[in-house]
Specification:
The chain has 214 residues and is mainly alpha-helical. The chain has nine helices and no strands. It starts with a helix and ends in a 16-residue tail after the last helix. Helix 3 packs across helix 6. It is elongated, with a radius of gyration of 20 Å.
Length: 214
């Protein structure tokens, strides 16, 4: 029993560290749902719910860390004053609509789509992190359970090796990551006040350089 308990704890700690690191990486990291698909294939008898909760905690901590780094590094050091004021328009609008922010992140957390760019963009607004942490944790908890349970069921019914379930560095994956990086850049260049107030899509021309430029 002692050996089995130690193995379980080591497995939990390993999953926590892997998921946390993957969620801190801003781009070109494999999606964490693949971790739980792998666990489901490799250990079909594992406690999927426990591992999913641990993974959701790690993913939430990792993504909020990424958002915070986005605030400290990108917003404060690389965005000009004009760019920051432009993004602050989003903070003004979302600040008065907490339910909308909650719903967006809850919905997105249920999907298998990469959320790195979403948290980077949120970090650029310098808004409070608990508002997005709670819905993201709830969504990821459920989605990780589904991925793990589905993989376990498939493994029991089909003869699929665990190694065949992985492999993410495809042309599609690289292309989508490059696209998401481009979207973050576009996010900083859209004139948000014109979009909200005038319903017009405009391109910011000034104030995009580093904060120390004059």
């Amino acid at each position: 029993m002692a050996v089995a308990f130690e193995e379980v704890m080591e497995r939990i700690l390993l999953i926590f560290l892997i998921v946390y690191v993957l969620n801190v990486i801003p781009a070109f990291a494999p999606p964490t749902w693949m971790v739980f698909s792998y666990v489901g294939f490799r250990y079909p008898g594992a406690n999927v719910i426990l591992l999913a909760i641990v993974g959701a905690v790690a993913a939430t901590l990792g993504r909020t860390t990424l958002a915070r780094l986005s605030t400290v590094i990108i917003r404060k050091r690389f965005l000009g004053e004009g760019a920051r004021q432009n993004i602050d328009v989003i903070r003004e609008r979302l600040g008065n609509r907490p339910k909308l922010t909650f719903s967006i992140f809850l919905f997105y957390a249920f999907t298998p789509f990469p959320s790195n760019y979403l948290f980077i963009a949120y970090g650029l607004t310098a808004m409070k992190l608990p508002r997005i942490a709670v819905p993201f944790f709830l969504g990821r908890s459920v989605s990780y359970v589904l991925w793990g349970a589905t993989s376990s069921m498939v493994r029991r019914r089909l003869s699929i090796e665990s190694g065949d379930a992985l492999g993410y560095m495809s042309v599609y994956f690289v292309a989508t990551q490059i696209l998401l990086i481009a979207l973050v850049y576009v996010f900083t260049r859209i004139d948000w006040r014109a979009l909200f107030d005038e319903r017009k899509l405009r391109w910011m021309r000034k104030g995009i350089g580093p904060a120390n430029q004059r």
